[in-house]
Amino acid sequence: MKITDHFDSTEFACKDGTQVPTELLGNLRMLCAALEVLRAELGKPIGIMSGYRTKAYNDKCGGAPNSRHVRADAADIQVAGVSPDVVADTCIRLAKEGRIAPGGIGRYLKWTHLDVRGVAARWDNRRSGKRG
Length: 132
Description:
Layout: H1 25-42, E1 47-50, H2 55-60, E2 74-78, H3 84-96, E3 104-107, E4 112-115, E5 121-124
Parallel strand pairs: 3-5
Antiparallel strand pairs: 1-2, 2-4, 3-4
């Protein structure tokens, strides 16, 4: 199901094959709205490394106990040719400017976590490699 111009719900399906539940599609719409702004700002497509996760899959992959991924309002993303630090810095700036919803921005070695939880949260897991 198409969520926005550049994002489809299937991109956010759990790695165990579970699609985003209907009751969480509103959360996914808010996330995709933020991702559209980020995509336009960077001028490049955004790859979704991890989107929605079932609680069971989140536990299995070592996700945080209260991971936003289980609410379908978070994604771990990569942008070809753009470092995760530049992606994170851009997300932080866009949130400060009020252009994307406030939320969590996590730094990892190979990806950036973005969520739209409604309040700012920041973390740096570049050394530990743990998932959000």
